[in-house]
């Protein structure tokens, strides 16, 4: 077996007097000379020999002017920013070495220490760091495969680090595309990292020899012997792996759920959601999210999400770092996020990283794919109500590309078959489009731009047309300063608007709506201080501009008067710093603090009310006018983000976290579910910002080599200044809305269980949540109290929530999938009696949310037929056959009451009261 032995110690017999002699000097200058030429000139000028192989000398230009300068100083300058070191012999001659150094003195007790370890771990004192142990290795692994050896960095006498950092990118050898989620394992251990969406990785290695191995589903697996002398970089170029496999196990981030410090973090596998049966065959990232513990909706066909007992407006939904205010199409049945153009989706519902701010409950961080830069690619689907197309177009080969995607619907026919009479006579149309341009300027700089637009237009009645739209634009500029520092400058703009066109035969035709616009600038920096400390820090500023509402008469005969509420403006700023601190192999801490600041800006009119009386039009004592951009009210405070992980066993960890958050924007609605007609208002003089605190604790364990994940996590959350409405409140076009709203307290708690099998013929997960969510509205005055000022269940309090998602692979081409969902019915306020007063009949209602609608459950089934797996073909296709609501369960969409013959009768409407079969065809090329 061939061995390569590199001995870093030779040239014995050096006398002590040689160390004391005066070093010779030289006078020489260089002007844009090649390094090889400069070394030759130095040899001739100084009259010495310099020994080295020509192949070691890099192509670089050097300049310098030296007068009576020590030869060693000249050499240090010439060899700077190269991998070459040098050693001066007693006669003045020089020997160049690559990566390593030559030493003339062994530290005391060296051979004893060398016997203790086969790696060079630099000692703490200076004398012991003057020697690197010989690097000895075999050129094969235990599997007798020859392994490529890569030397990283240049040895430095003054460097006493016990770990060095290796970073780089992984690229597809053929296409040049970054390889995401590539697992990189070290020394056949559980230690490792995975590449991010840009193919970037960072890993900490011991000095000396390390074996790294890659694990990937789509690319070849390779082993590299890394001999590391200092921090450095190494890019991996991997060929595509196209061989047909009997079974594939994805190892990337296999133990992330146990290893990282964050509680309540979930990642959605975008590619594999195609196997989950969903309504009308449309892949839906958001609907998959609701099958995870702690995330639910108020009902079928409703937009918005409730995370750990929070309101729907307490979720920060980001598309390439820009806020998406309404991520739903078609009454909430479809998501406005295109799965074909999405690369990653991460949900934070426990410990929210410090770089995120402005919401209380969760963050949905959705990142779009980078376009391929080598070859044209695409993906398309055709379903019963929607079609989807995404294309990736190389612009500059291996440097830049453009991705475009679009979806549209032809959904009117499905409305005609719904059980709800109003929806049966309705029309609906939506579309969304996205474009992303990414450009790799050079190794250290990258630019990307994203544009997104969606629009919905629907008519529930014959005289009203509703429409709403999202518009998003983002710019990302990434810069790598060096191996330890990276930064990203982010500029985003989000716009959301809603509109109603009302026309009938009377003189009250109108156009009404509102819009919100926000612009944010963010600087996000990352610094790796050492193998134990990784810092994330930055600053952001966001400008809100809200037009709360307007109404304009249509036609000359309209008797309505135009009304337009004053624009609201606010500036939200944040500064943060966070540290991932590896205390030891068992304990990992993530500690961050964010300082949040919000200022409400003019122009605005602020009213002041009588003390000792409720805020009402008849209790106004004065008012004050604020000019444009004049500060009206400022709120601020620190937000702490603390979490930790402790290994009880190698595959069992205990995690705990605490965080507190501020939110300065509120929705105004007296609907149970999220509605496009909900309007937004900012905190100001009379409306306080919402605040929340959350504590969580959980156990995380993996089985069967990380193939099976299990976790149990509990949380407790308290909230302040939750915005709600008074009984009988009028919120529509109300300029002084503080007279109609109440701010109260909230609390929620729960336990979440998750069992997930990630690989094998049978895979999927079971998620169960027991949770409670309560609200307390106890104002100073009677009209500000609800349910006598006691805690009562919130509209989204659903104690039991069970989801089962299962996939079974029959063969490489045939698979079956099933969903089962069960949820406790949401709270509702019922009429409980009637009474007469002054000759009129009135209905007496129960306490708010005293009763519940019937429980919800649903079973879905699907069959997936993959195309053949031939290597030489145009593309890959698959068919999906699914049945939504197989049992035909008549789950309630809403419960309402009518008076008939003097009696109050309850009625129930449903969205999908019958099984809904679907066939969709998908093609990827």
UniProtKB/TrEMBL annotation:
SUPFAM superfamilies: Carboxypeptidase regulatory domain-like (SSF49464), Porins (SSF56935). Keywords: Cell outer membrane, Membrane, Receptor, Transmembrane, Transmembrane beta strand, Transport. It comes from Christiangramia flava JLT2011. The keyword Transport applies. Belongs to the TonB-dependent receptor family. This is TonB-dependent receptor. It is found in: Cell outer membrane. Residues 281-359 form the TonB-dependent receptor plug domain. One of its GO terms (cellular component) is cell outer membrane. The keyword Transcription does not apply. It is a multi-pass membrane protein. Pfam families: CarbopepD_reg_2, Plug. It comes from the Bacteria. InterPro entries: Beta-barrel_TonB_sf (IPR036942), CarboxyPept-like_regulatory (IPR008969), Plug_dom (IPR012910), Plug_dom_sf (IPR037066), TonB-dep_rcpt-like (IPR039426).
């Amino acid at each position: 077996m061939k061995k390569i032995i590199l001995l870093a110690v030779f040239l014995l017999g050096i006398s002590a007097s040689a160390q004391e002699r005066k070093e010779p000097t030289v006078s020489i200058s260089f002007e844009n000379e090649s390094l090889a030429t400069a070394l030759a000139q130095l040899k001739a000028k100084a009259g010495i020999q310099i020994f080295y192989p020509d192949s070691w000398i890099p192509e670089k230009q050097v300049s310098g002017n030296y007068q009576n300068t020590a030869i060693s100083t000249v050499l240090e300058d010439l060899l700077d920013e190269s991998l070459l070191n040098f050693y001066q012999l007693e006669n003045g001659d020089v020997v160049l070495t690559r990566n390593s150094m030559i030493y003339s003195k062994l530290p005391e007790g060296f051979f004893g220490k060398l016997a203790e370890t086969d790696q060079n771990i630099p000692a703490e004192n200076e004398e012991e760091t003057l020697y690197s142990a010989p690097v000895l290795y075999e050129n094969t692994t235990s599997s007798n495969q020859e392994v490529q050896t890569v030397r990283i960095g240049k040895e430095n006498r003054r460097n006493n680090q016990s770990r060095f950092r290796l970073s780089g990118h992984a690229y597809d050898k053929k296409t040049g595309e970054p390889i995401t989620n590539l697992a990189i394992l070290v020394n056949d251990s559980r230690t490792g990292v995975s590449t991010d969406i840009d193919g970037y990785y960072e890993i900490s290695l011991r000095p000396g020899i390390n074996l790294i191995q890659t694990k990937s589903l789509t690319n070849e697996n390779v082993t590299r012997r890394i001999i590391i002398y200092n921090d450095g970089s190494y890019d991996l170029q991997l060929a595509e792996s196209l061989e047909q496999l009997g079974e594939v196990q994805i190892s990337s981030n296999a133990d992330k759920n146990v290893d990282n410090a964050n509680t309540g973090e979930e990642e959605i596998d975008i590619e594999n959601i195609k196997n989950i049966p969903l309504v009308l065959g449309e892949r839906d990232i958001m609907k998959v999210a609701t099958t995870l513990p702690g995330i639910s909706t108020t009902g079928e066909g409703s937009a918005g999400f409730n995370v750990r007992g929070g309101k729907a407006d307490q979720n920060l939904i980001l598309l390439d770092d820009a806020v998406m205010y309404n991520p739903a199409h078609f009454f909430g049945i479809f998501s406005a996020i295109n799965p074909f153009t999405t690369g990653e989706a991460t949900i934070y519902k426990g410990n929210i990283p410090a770089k995120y701010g402005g919401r209380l409950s969760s963050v949905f961080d959705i990142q779009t794919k980078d376009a391929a830069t080598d070859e044209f690619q695409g993906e398309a689907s055709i379903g019963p109500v929607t079609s989807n197309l995404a294309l990736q177009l190389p612009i500059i080969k291996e440097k830049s590309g453009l991705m475009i995607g679009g979806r549209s619907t032809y959904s009117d026919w499905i409305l005609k078959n719904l059980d709800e009479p109003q929806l049966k006579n309705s029309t609906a149309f939506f579309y969304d489009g996205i474009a992303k341009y990414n450009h790799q300027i050079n190794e250290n700089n990258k630019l990307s731009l994203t544009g997104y637009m969606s629009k919905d237009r629907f008519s529930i009645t014959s005289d009203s047309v509703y429409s709403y739209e999202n518009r998003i634009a983002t710019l990302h500029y990434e810069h790598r300063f060096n191996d330890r520092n990276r930064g990203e400058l982010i500029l985003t703009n989000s716009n959301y608007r809603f509109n109603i066109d009302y026309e009938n035969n009377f003189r009250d035709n109108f156009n009404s709506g509102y819009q919100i616009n926000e612009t944010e600038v963010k600087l996000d920096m990352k610094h790796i201080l050492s193998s134990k400390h990784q810092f994330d820090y930055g600053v952001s500023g966001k400008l809100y501009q809200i037009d709360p509402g307007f109404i304009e008469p249509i036609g000359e005969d309209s008797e309505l008067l135009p009304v337009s509420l004053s624009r609201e403006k606010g500036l939200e700023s944040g500064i943060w710093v966070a540290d991932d601190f590896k205390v030891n192999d068992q304990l990992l801490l993530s500690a961050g603090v964010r300082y949040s600041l919000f200022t409400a800006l003019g122009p605005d009119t602020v009213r002041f009310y009588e003390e000792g009386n409720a805020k009402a039009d008849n209790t106004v004592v004065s008012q004050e006018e604020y000019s444009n951009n004049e500060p009206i009210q400022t709120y601020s405070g620190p937000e702490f983000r603390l979490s930790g992980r402790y290994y009880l066993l190698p595959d069992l960890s205990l995690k705990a976290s605490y965080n507190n958050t501020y939110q300065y924007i509120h929705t105004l609605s007296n609907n149970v579910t999220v509605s496009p007609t909900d309007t937004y208002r900012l905190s100001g003089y009379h409306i306080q910002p919402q605040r929340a605190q959350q504590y969580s604790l959980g156990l995380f364990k993996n089985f069967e080599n990380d193939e099976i994940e299990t976790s149990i996590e509990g949380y407790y959350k308290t909230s302040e200044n939750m915005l709600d409405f008074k009984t009988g409140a009028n919120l529509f076009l109300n300029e002084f809305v503080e007279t109609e709203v109440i701010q109260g307290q909230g609390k929620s708690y729960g336990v979440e269980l998750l069992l997930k099998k990630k690989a094998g013929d049978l895979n999927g997960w079971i998620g169960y949540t027991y949770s409670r969510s309560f609200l307390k509205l106890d104002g100073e005055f009677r009209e500000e109290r609800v349910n006598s000022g006691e805690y009562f269940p919130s509209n989204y309090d659903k104690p039991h929530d069970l989801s089962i998602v299962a996939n079974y692979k029959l063969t490489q081409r045939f698979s079956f999938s099933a969903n089962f969902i069960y949820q406790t019915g949401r709270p509702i306020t019922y009429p409980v009696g009637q009474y007469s007063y002054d000759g009129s009949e009135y209905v007496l209602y129960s306490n708010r949310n005293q009763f519940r609608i019937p429980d919800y459950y649903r079973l879905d089934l699907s069959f997936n037929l993959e195309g053949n797996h031939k290597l030489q073909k145009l593309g890959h296709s698959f068919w999906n056959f699914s049945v939504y609501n197989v049992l035909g369960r008549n789950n309630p969409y809403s419960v309402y009451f009518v008076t008939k013959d003097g009696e109050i009768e309850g009625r129930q409407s449903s969205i999908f009261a019958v099984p809904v079969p679907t066939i969709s065809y998908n093609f990827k090329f």
